[in-house]
Amino acid sequence: MALRLPRSGVPQVLAFLAILAINWTVSPQFFDIRLQDGRLFGSLIDVFNRGAPVALLSLGMVLVIATRGIDLSVGAVMAISGAIAASLADTHPLPVVLAAALGAGLLCGLWNGLLVAVLGIQPIVATLILMVAGRGIAQLITEGRIVTFTAPELVWFGGGSVLGIPAPVAITLGMLLVTLILVRGTALGLMIEATGGNARASALAGVGTTAMTMAVYVWCSLCAALAGIIAAADILGADANNAGLWLELDAILAVVIGGTSLFGGRFSLVYAVLGALIIQAMNTGILLSGFRPEFNLVVKAVVVLVVLLMQSPRLSGLGLLLSRVSK
Amino acid sequence: MAVTPLLETRGLTKSFAGVCVLDHVDFTLRAGEIHALLGENGAGKSTLIKLVTGVVSRDAGTVLLDGAAVDLRSADAALSAGVATVYQEVNMLPNLSVAQNLFLGRQPTRFGFVRESEMRRRATVLLNEFGLDIDVAAPLGDYSVAVQQITAIARAVDMSARVLILDEPTASLDKHEVEILFAAMRQLAGRGIGIVFVTHFLDQVYAISDRITVLRNGRLVGERETAKLPRMELVHMMLGRELSEVTVARSHHVAGMAHPPYAVFRQFGKAGTIAPFDLELRSGEVVGLAGLLGSGRTETARLVFGADRADVGTATVDGRAARLHSPRDAVQLGFGYCPEERKTDGIVAELTVRENIVLALQARRGLLKPLSRREQDEIATRFIKLLDIRPADPERPIGLLSGGNQQKALLARWLAISPRLLILDEPTRGIDVGAHAEIIRLIRQLCADGLALLVISSELEEIVTYADQVIVLRERAHVTALTSDAINVTSILAAIAADLPRAA
Fold first, then answer.
1. Is the pTM of this model over 0.80?
2. Which terminus of chain A is more exposed, N or C, with fewer CB under 10 A?
3. B7-239 CATH fold
4. B363–A188: do the CB atoms touch at under 8 Å?
5. Got the DSSP string for B454-483?
């Protein structure tokens, strides 16, 4: 693994701006923002709003990946929490609904953490279990139907706003701040980076690696549960078959675009969220440009390829060699 | 010159990142002999093997096969030239059958189809030559490591290997299995195949080898005939060291014994790892652990630090019964441990020097009491200056530093927690001479400052200059404790080399 000097994040910011600029050229009204019923609307706002669930997922995912793990179950956890929230919304007060949905997320996180941190199962396999089972659990909760609801308190999570900012964006921003405080305000960030960088050495330095690994999986599932509530509120219902489907891959992609290596170690919360926004900006741009949405997948794949090529130690070695030769 | 040697190296030299790991080494293997290649960790045994087989490219020197210079570039090239290597971790495929493993990539075929029955027949014949009568259709993984080793050897020999390099083949074998392997080796030597046998079990060296070559710190110490080399002299060749840089006389601490012991271990041990031992560590005193590789030195250190959990015995620290279930417990008690394997167990390569230094202190303070960036900078700068870590840049990833400077940064990590007991496992291994002397000076200084120290070292002259007590280990047990005037290289060597009390 190549050793890198601390990142600057410049490539991510430039990429985001470049995609926004491209979006502006294909759709000149891209940056138009209007205020309607006390809430901001416009394509740019849409990028943030639609990007919120994946951004939330990436907040948890980046911590998991920093410990050299991965969590494939976040999409399924979204489906579970969305199903619970939608089923309870019209019959129970909001605090109960939220507690039940987030509580389910907590349990999912404990399960993943138990498998990975305590039993030592490889993260990709351990979380695959919940990825498969979780969607089944969600379908059991909704009894195979699309459960709809009308409770306005829950609807707010998708369509509401705070000071004009759409609720999903505000919630994501809030979670970003909370996560930043939890991770960088305490020593957790250093411990996670140390564990991801060298778990053996960290344990010998007295770092409680087991509890910490547990904690990141729990946090990841909590973020996913919150994303599931937003996704359900957005469509006023829970679709256990499709809620959060494949979003684990978008979340992983967002983390990788954000410059956190799948080898673990150094991570950046802010750039992971930016990664999620980059993905959403591309999606929105393709929709606006009038290309068929199928293009989306191909373009995404190209972006993944470029990012991974930039991270490849061999390629950077090659680049170094070329630059030497050219001198 | 009677006969042309089978394999010969002349002046083989290799440096990694500016550190010379093999320095003009000559090595000669004759046909039909079993040649033991000995040396402590980092002596250059594996580097020598890798240079011969071309896995690693050499900086200087020649490799001669049958008297002709060869330039092997890969393990494949070596194999086709007749040089085969069998490693401790058998790199074969446990899920395939024994026969498939033996003939992988060269299966007997007819019209492009593998002839399974023919393959099995040949496999049975081949293994019979080695005294193995097993079901060759069963997966290799079902058999013991010894059988797997012999299968690997049989494969190599069947591919017309004339030089066979066995890298610690017996490390995970029991006594009976070693006998099976030795029988196979003797039979091959009888056929004129030259065998290089790397091991650290001296009993086995004397049981099977004809000749011994000893390496130390990348240099050739000598080549001898096994029958004419007394055990004592062999140990001296492996561990002894010309008193050149470190020629300071022992410094005696008079106050040492007056202190009550800081940490006391009674009948502390772990089944299969280290026999129960008693150990007393006092402030201002250095206890050295001496013994050959695999004698239980590191195992003792890991047990004391809680990295492995003792299954018998008690630990008392500062007069109170102590819980030592994990390194976390040990760090809370004020223990520090610089492991031998810096890269895998010590540094977090991609984090900065600053982060590596504050890691243990932060772990001890807990998550909720983070050191501010200013405190971290202050600690890092202080220790970089105190220990003269170079380059003096706290923000440089530690993986980019030299071995000696990494070691100093790890020392800084522990000094930052103001430890009461520091365990150093081979603190001077793999670092250049300058840093070497500094670390020894530092050990003395720490001891004078009132730390209790437990130091493992293969450099006996080194131990002698700073230890107040030397515990000699053999075969995973503490066998002798030497104190004050009894501490000298000769007495330590004698204790290491002493023959085991055998049942008459």
1. no
2. C
3. Rossmann fold (3.40.50)
4. no
5. EEE-S-HHHHHHH-SEEEEEETTEEEEEEE
